[in-house]
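Request from the bench team (R.T.):
"We need a structural guess for the complex before ordering more zinc ion. Sequence and SMILES attached. Just send the tokens back."

Command: build protein-zinc ion structure.
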Amino acid sequence: MHTLRDASILLFLFFLIILFYQLHYKSELSIPIEIPILSKSETFKIVSNEYSSLWYQKYCFKNKLSQKLVLENLPQYLNNARVSTNKICQQFATKFDALFRLEEIYGLLKLSPVYLNKINQWLHNDELLIEQIKKQRIIKIYNRYTHEEMLYNYMRSQRPQTKNEISPEEYTSKLLQDSKKNCDFCSKNYLNSTAEDRFGRLEHRLSYTAANTFKYDRWHTLVVSRNHDTLHLTEAEIVDMFELVQEWLHKAYSIEPMYTCPEMIWDAMPKSGASQMHTHLQASLGFDIYYGNIERTRQGARFYAQRNNGRNYFNDYLYIHQVLGLTIPIGNAHIIIHLTPIKDLEIMIMDEKLNKNFYKALHLVLRTFVDDLNEYSFSFGMYLPPMNESSADRHEMPVVCRLVFRNSVTNLRSDMNGLDLYTSSVIGKDRYVLYQQLKEGIEKRQK
Ligand SMILES: [Zn+2]
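Reply to R.T.: structure attached below.
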């Protein structure tokens, strides 16, 4: 009898423990981490603006059309729009101020005659620059919702640089050639030197998948181009990689539909942190939420909608950059030279979905950076709208990729420091200068 009673007690305790764990696990998962989407929230939609950037420049910013826009004058453009009697100009200023905080700061320097002499040498006796260095103007732009920030000081780009011993171009082409000799990803080598996902390997004519041997998530794969040279892919090779990514995402999602958040990264050449020279994207599917940096943007966008009558953050973000003349459209895909880059050479591409315009924009941007600006290493991050949303009723989030070139490839000094990593991005290159360089590169290739 005693044994039976003891067994019943033990069984009861066992069930209690199971129940406790179930409840505990359930309550942890049910903690709301997301800002709710308002029912009146707008979705993302590319619309053509009624007025061009040139119209805004003339009537809102009071900038003569013969004068190029410069980032240093952004506070002035904004002030002119704020005090304008034109409603369209006021609307722009209101949207800008809702999303960004803009400040103008002066940093003063006291220079001893000896040190001034040294600075004169650095700046090649340029009197204007010497005056500017004594009273430095810093433009601070803060995104109120993603908390990204840029501290722009033109004088930072004038800092003395260490000279490269070897040309970045020679270094890069030698590295690409040497790494081709024993490459695990080239020709058929991958069949014996890479792992497969649990549903096997997907193969396209120009690319294939290989499971990452060192995973950072449950659903995480490599999409490898059959072209070793990551800096000189054709548009067709880029298209093929991204189509294979989408095929892999759908396959993984069909097996485990609770994994809904698609993300991609791509590092090219060692300066960016790439461990393999051979072209390879990494795709992953997140459970319920995106990775932290992307989720911060998604949650920020929802908070923006809450505080701004349901307006879509991404619509307004794109509109602000269009008005400021910092976007290059390729069909509906928009290249954005955005106001809060992680580093000087970062751009963004935004569209409603992945399509041929998006691939074309990416290809044109890569060609301009590599062939015209002689930049040879980049990091790339991208997200797509969640897999469980139907594209028929449009998405809260657009398709966005961010791409930053990491210079200089032969310089031992890192391109990012404590400031960039832990405080704010410090930028020395005018966003309008990068815009102009990309625009020229893209236009000549489209002719
Ligand atoms: Zn290779």
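Two things stood out. The chain has a mean pLDDT of 91. The chain has two domains: 53-158, 168-446.
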